[in-house]
User: Fold this.
Amino acid sequence: MFSETIELRGHIIDSLILPKVLDQILTHGANFKIGEIEIGKKRADQSFARIEVSAETAEALDELILRLRQHGAEVAKREDAQLASAPADGVFPRDFYVTTNQQTFVRFDGKEIEVQPAMMDSAIAVDRKRGAARAVKFFDVRKGDEIIVGHQGVRVVPVQRATSRTDVFQFINTIIDADEPKSAIIRELAGELQRVRRARGEIAVVVGPAIVRTGAGQHLVRLIESRFVDRLFAGNSFAAYDLERALFGTSLGISPDLAFARGGRENFVRAVNAIREVGGIAAAIKKKIVTSGIMHACVRHNVDIVLTGSIRDEGPIPGVTTDAIEAQKVMREKLTDVTHALLLATLHHSLAVASMLAPTVKTVCVDIDPSAVERAVEHQPLQSIGLVTDVEPFLRELTDYLSDSRVRD
Assistant:
């Protein structure tokens, strides 16, 4: 048997870090022996555990320790990280360390350096001269860059449950199913958003076309007008549907107010053409071609609009970032200071944004598809709430609570 001693520190009991670590050990067919454990006596006190982990082979032990590090485990014996040169532009060396979105430190030359930014599914490049470490994607790496390989000298600090107060986000991976009551949760969310606005936090809203097509756009407009949206992330089609509704009263040829709408699907293409003709959304609003809708509210209230394209897009609308790599860069930049994110009725856009969020960002995902909600909230295990429901009643109830002065904040 091969063994290694690991240590856990922090709120490892109430954040379920200790049970997760022990479960990982047993799941991988290894054994553990708790050599020392100290449990905090008060809510704010931290706990400590020292655990000897053993496995049948050195390779199995090494793989297991890597997984345990991602839960915040530290190897008792401190060593420097191992480095290898990138063999070519856009290629990492073999056995490179794959990051999570948790706060990460690397040790080299006897000192610990924080990896910036915290970004999942990346590698870590080290600049020895500057004493810096950064998370890099494939498109960022250049031949000869020093990249961390293995997990030695890497320390992950997972987000832990807050001890100062209890709020609606303190439930781990909370998913409210379609047949469960949601009013109490939505009321608490309204109170949270009111606190965020007073504290000058940054609220991002990620939206899909279903918001326009179900008639929920009017509630999102209320949210924007009440200053509860700082950035709006969407695809080209969302903006086109909203502009089509503002210009022709339909979205993809369908009107929520009429059984039969004139124009059919051609209205969608005509709306895109109208915006392209004047040079963009802001120009169309300035010239009073567009006088209502979500895009109109965003421009009028200085909401930062971040639109990205796909291969299915018509147009696209001017201002949409169509290059996929450039879109990633823009989205990461726009998400750096976000404190709260609402992921509303859009699976792929929600997953893209969720993978880019810092682990401290509080996230709410609303979708009628349970699997979409589950996949989105798993990125933020201690900071996310998922509601399986139609987006229209959710937004209607949320905006009603936000306008109700009796809601406790």
Remarks:
- The mean pLDDT is 89.
